Every structure is written in structure tokens, then in C-alpha cells.
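Review this today:
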Amino acid sequence: MPAIDLPELPAALAFARSGKNFVLTSHINCDGDGVAGCLALQTILRSLGKEARVILPDPPNLQYNFLAGWEGIETAAAQAPERKAEHLIVLDCPSLTRIGVIKEYVDEGTRVLVLDHHQDSQPFGHVNLTTTKASSSSELVYHLGAALGYQLTPAVAEQLYMGILFDTGGFRYALTTPVTLEVGAQLVRAGARLDFVADRLFNNQSLPVLKLLGRALESLQLYCGDRVAVVHLSHADLDGGIGHVDVVNYGLMVQSVEISVALKEQTPGQYRVSLRSRERIDVRAIAAVFDGGGHTRAAGCRLEGSTDKVRAQLLAEIAKHL
């Protein structure tokens, strides 16, 4: 059985076994790893006779709607819920500030378990199952489920496989380990349809989203001796609510580029910044300067100002790392 060193695993097992009512959640703008991990852990807990709800800070991307259990995902309301969570499990979230309105579900009586694999993780739970040795939070859910004695079903195997596939970029990124590949093999043996999941994850966009990708690529410019690529989507581009488009990785397709930057104007003057790099540069360190974080090769932050100002701030910091 694939395994990694998880010192807090016994405490996480006790947390799962002792609780009766669980709320499962992830970070704001939850991605494929967070959604898939929550759904899989929900089924695992229910197999133990527990009550478990998946409540996310905001609506998840419809791209993941092929996953079993999708229709049961709840979105948190801005106002305080009728009942606080007895046991809260937070997946794929490095800090308490990133759970958004889910904080309304927490009071002094709430017990919190954190499952996270980010390098800048700031453990905030009563129990913290955190390690940078896991490719994804879905991989951590696999290890937790195995330790609980859960027998994988095809549906749960497919959820976990999708989460791992998302965070590893199809087993391409540096955070993929031999254990990750072994876990993937176990999930396929348990019934995960690797071709179906890959198709639904990577080839499942609407025509408007593809056209938005085209506009992003048209905006691509090179800086710092052609070593930095920057793409930009304005608020007007994104205002149609047409869904998520991942544009930042395309900059790395340019042979000379070492760092790719995507600027997405979420609201006028408010930018969500994504950073990606090749093997030499730690973009997490760049994001940290702007109170962001993430991984060595994939990180992000938020900045305010005009496009020119935000781009200039980023390029000035990036230049220090080239």
C-alpha cells in the first residue's frame, strides 16, 4: 500500500472516528483538488456512519460536475448559519483567512482538522494533517481513507484521481512523487476511468471560455529579455460570468520564458495574479512579497491598482529572481 510519513495521522484518525457531524470545505475559489477531495472524504465519513456535508465558500466550477456527489455540494451563505459546525475539515487551504464566509460556521466549540500540502501552510486546526510530500489534498484523503480501512469504490477512486490529476497537471508537475504515481495506479485499479477523467478535466470547456482564452493569448507580452510572459484579462473580459479559464500555463510554452504571469481583473482595479515557473525559480517567494503563497512552481496573490501599476510591481520583484 503506498504510504508517506504523516506524524499527525493517528490524531486525524481519532478526529474522524470520534466526531458525528462534519462540515467539509476548502479555500475560496475552490479548485479541482479541493472539490474532489471534499466529495471523496464525505463518502468515506458516511461509510463510518457519520453525517457529512460539503459546504464551499463560493460555487465550484461547473467543469467538475461529472464527479459523483456533485449535486449535493452546498454554497455557504454570507449570513451566519443556523447551526455552527461541530467538526470542520478544511482541505487544500494554507491559512484560516482563505476559507472566506466559512468562518461563520466556526465558534469556540468547533473542532477543526486541516488537510493541506502547501509549502506556506500555516496550520490552524486542532489537528493538522499537513505535508509538502503529498502532491495534493486528494492524495492526503487517499492516505486517510486507507488508514480508516475504507474500501475504495469506483466513484471515490475517480474523485481522488481527478483531484490528483488536477494538482499535478496530469502527473507533469514537480510535486508528483513515486508515491503519487503508486496512488494513481491504485485508484485506476479500483475503477477510476483515467481516460474519461482526463477528457472531462482537460477537454471540457464552453465555446465562450475558449474564445476568452484566445483573448488572453492575444494579450501575451514578453519582458525581461523574453524570460517573463504576462497575459491579461480585464474585468470587461471576465464580466460575462462565463466560467474559469486557466491561461497562466500557456506563457511557459514560449521557449525562452522562465516565469509566466496571468493578471485577472476580478473587479475593477482588483487583480488575481497567478504565477508559474520552470525548475529554477521559486514563484512562491515572489507571491509572498505580496502576501500570497502557494508552491515553488505555482503560486498566486492579489493586487490592487491599474494594469500598468500591477504589472510593474510584479516585474520589479520578478527581476530580482532571474
User: Anything to note?
Assistant: The mean pLDDT is 93. The chain has two domains: 9-202, 207-319. Residues 9-202 form a domain with the inorganic pyrophosphatase (n-terminal core) fold (CATH 3.90.1640.10). Residues 32-47 form the longest helix (16 residues).
